[in-house]
Target: Tol-Pal system protein TolR
Amino acid sequence: MAGHIIHRRRRKLKSEINVVPYIDVMLVLLVIFMVTAPLLTLSVDVKLPSSTARATQDREEPVIVVAYPDGRLGLKLPGDDSPREVDAARMEAMLAPVREQQGADFRVMVAADGDAPYQRVIDAMDVLRRARVTNVSLWTDSRANAR
Model:
């Protein structure tokens, strides 16, 4: 037995990556996304509420801030016939004495055109927040129908 030489063949190492398991995983993920994607894009039709409630009776005429579609702001103080165009800093300065005079009952209504982006309304409310106005309401047209 001493004369027998055992020759072992060395296995040659592969320098390639076996991608078959990765392809299987990718196909499973593709199926999962194909099944769940239509469920994520479902939309819900919402019927906006409408109200036939009458407006509340106020003792004083409210201060009205108008947000125009192009980004301008208007301010209608009690006694004014129509809103006058003002910038944010001027509005803050004009609201300070009215807020001091009316005290805790100071209320501001924000009005915007139906075509105005909602961002314009938020911008107007930010100006009011900087002016330390805490009682803010949205002005609506009671004659308009909900969509």
Strands lie at 63-67, 73-76, 84-86, 108-112, 136-138. The two ends are 99 Å apart (CA to CA).
